[in-house]
């Protein structure tokens, strides 16, 4: 079965946990073809990490957790050059997000904090033929989101923060396909557990708990993507 080129879109510690997990899977191949804006990095890893712009906390900017992890693991880190409320994210040279050998097979968003351009999704899904399976048709999965709640509960941005602030007693994670409408894509997997007191100590512990929960689903989801 074919192995995958994965581009992980992320910006926080939850994203870093997922990147570390993906790098250990045999489902993903050993390199990815994508432009990196970080010269210190190499293309030696199976997962490229795209991150939101480093936060301005004095000079120079303070790097996001994803950027720090990418640098320490020598994983490609691609930083958006422009984000504003009324302009789609301009990053990663999205024209490079394409199908074919040596390019991206699937996008995985995990706390990315920005909408993936429809043009990038179209590049992945264009000219894909559905496969006939019995009486139904299946189509390849090209972009998924790892959402930190049991959708539709806490849909939208910062779901883990919303659950933490709301004192939620239940932690869920939903894996769904990326769709034009935010958090409305087809659900591929979902899991939930009671929130332990230690997990509710802060956002960092909540992110770690959500990552552990996500990791229980990732092997099955990646196999589903491969078979599609």
Automatic annotation (TrEMBL):
Query: Where in the sequence does UniProt note compositional bias of the Low complexity kind?
Result: 53-72
Formyl transferase N-terminal domain segment(s): 140-222
Q: Name one Pfam family in it.
A: Formyl_trans_N
* InterPro entries cross-referenced by the UniProt entry: Formyl_transf_N (IPR002376), Formyl_transf_N_sf (IPR036477)
What Gene3D superfamilies does the entry give? Formyl transferase, N-terminal domain
Which Gene Ontology molecular function entries are recorded, alphabetically? methionyl-tRNA formyltransferase activity
Transmembrane domains' residue ranges: none
Give me the ranges of the annotated region Disordered: 50-73
Q: Which domain of life is it from?
A: Eukaryota
User: Sorted alphabetically, which PANTHER family does this protein's record hold?
Assistant: METHIONYL-TRNA FORMYLTRANSFERASE (PTHR11138), METHIONYL-TRNA FORMYLTRANSFERASE, MITOCHONDRIAL (PTHR11138:SF5)
Q: What is the name of the protein in this document? A: Formyl transferase N-terminal domain-containing protein
